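User: Reviewer 2 asked us to show a designed sequence for the structure in our supplementary figure. I'm pasting the structure tokens here. Could you produce the per-position amino acids so we can include them in the response letter?
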């Protein structure tokens, strides 16, 4: 048993554990460890996601003697120079005109290749909105509307991506089909529960097992009002490619990040337990469940004795049923709900953040919770339950000065949550 922990020590420790998890997903090192055999002909690099620019730079630097070209797209503010590979910046989580331009540029880059050529597809989280190619008569405005409605619906990322695939000319294996007959190798940094390659960035280079019927069912269940062009496209029963060729390698993933976090905790004299790398559901509800586990650790030494660190990953959701003025992402919402559930219990601290450095659309990766979070909030006149009701968790933690700001990390292995109990 550690002695009574200071607040400063606990928060520094949690930040160190979080940083170790993010560092384990360094895109440059991950790409260089997993480069395929060099081609006899050209190497065309394409990619989409928050890590794609850093991944592309790694390929360019590793193969100076190879005829390398290509284009990748990343989120605004996440770009780095990638040598011979063009980098486009676009919008996330809702696509913009640059996303559509990137989709066309990437499709053009893989056109007309031979069997001696190699296509390296660098795919990471965020690619679904960063690279779009609306199918049929869909417009970019149609895609934006569907995307916004899906994000607000409470659907899981897997369900959202099934709909996206069936409205696209590049997702769901269509990019792989366009690259044929060149050899295709996809290097993936996973940000999705279970590391399913067909879900990362909506699987542009892998076979798609989902069907139009699946997409229709999701639209119906979440009561998404589709634009006319989108409804007509789904009604045409146009399927995604079910058999595409290519090798797929997951080079970084939430599981590996949580293992790195666990190692960091052990080096600090703590007992880590990984509760799962694919936790889903409503952020505020998962927080209540996690608070129950934290109390069990503190009171009963179950499922692990203290001093313990409860680690988890995955991608939760924030369902917004009405227009609210609040600002926040799934991690700060999780933490605000956790603080309310814990009600100031002593010797319990938490951190939660998005490994890409940006929680939702805000500038912070996430935030901290301390035993005195609610007390300090009350002293400032902040009603925690009101902030939670308004989905305004970012503002709540900003007022307290408890945001975790990392800046863009240029990787993405989903959310990292750590709860310290002594």
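Assistant: Here is a per-position design you can include in the supplement:
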């Amino acid at each position: 048993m550690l002695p009574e922990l200071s607040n400063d020590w606990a928060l520094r420790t949690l930040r160190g554990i979080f940083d170790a998890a993010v560092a384990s997903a360094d895109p440059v090192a991950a790409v260089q460890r997993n480069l395929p055999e060099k081609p006899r002909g050209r190497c065309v690099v394409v990619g989409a996601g928050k890590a794609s620019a850093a991944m592309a730079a790694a390929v360019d630097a590793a193969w100076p003697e190879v005829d390398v070209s290509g284009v990748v797209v990343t989120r605004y503010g996440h770009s780095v120079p990638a040598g011979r590979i063009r980098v486009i910046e676009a919008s996330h989580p809702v696509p913009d005109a640059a996303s559509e331009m990137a989709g066309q540029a990437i499709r053009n880059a893989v056109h007309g290749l031979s069997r001696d050529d190699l296509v390296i597809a660098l795919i990471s989280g965020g690619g679904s909105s960063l690279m779009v190619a609306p199918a049929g008569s869909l417009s970019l405005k149609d895609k934006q509307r569907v995307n916004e409605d899906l994000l607000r619906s409470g659907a899981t990322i897997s369900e959202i991506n099934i709909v996206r695939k069936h409205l696209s000319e590049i997702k769901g294996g269509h990019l792989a089909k366009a690259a044929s007959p060149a050899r295709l190798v996809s290097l993936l940094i996973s940000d999705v529960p279970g590391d399913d390659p067909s879900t990362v960035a909506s699987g542009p280079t892998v076979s798609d097992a989902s069907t139009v019927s699946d997409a229709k069912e999701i639209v119906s269940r979440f009561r998404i009002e589709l634009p006319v062009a989108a409804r007509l496209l789904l009604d045409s029963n146009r399927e995604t490619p079910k058999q595409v060729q290519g090798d797929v390698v997951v080079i970084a993933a939430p599981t590996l990040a949580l293992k790195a976090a666990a190692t960091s905790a052990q080096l600090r004299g703590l007992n880590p337990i990984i509760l799962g790398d694919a936790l889903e559901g409503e952020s505020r509800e998962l927080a209540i469940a996690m608070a129950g586990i934290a109390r069990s650790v503190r009171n009963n030494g179950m499922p692990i004795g203290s001093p313990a660190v409860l680690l988890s990953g995955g991608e939760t959701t924030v369902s917004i049923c009405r227009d609210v003025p609040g600002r926040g992402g799934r991690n700060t919402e999780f933490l605000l709900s956790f603080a309310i559930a814990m009600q100031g219990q002593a010797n319990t601290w938490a951190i939660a953040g998005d490994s890409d450095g940006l929680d939702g659309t805000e500038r912070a990766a996430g935030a901290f919770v301390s035993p005195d979070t609610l007390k300090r909030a009350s002293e400032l006149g902040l009603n925690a339950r009101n902030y939670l009701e308004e989905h305004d968790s970012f503002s709540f933690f900003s007022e307290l000065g408890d945001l975790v700001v990392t800046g863009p990390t240029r990787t993405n292995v989903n959310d990292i949550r750590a709860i310290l109990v002594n």
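For the response letter, you might also mention the following. The mean pLDDT is 95. The radius of gyration is 22 Å.
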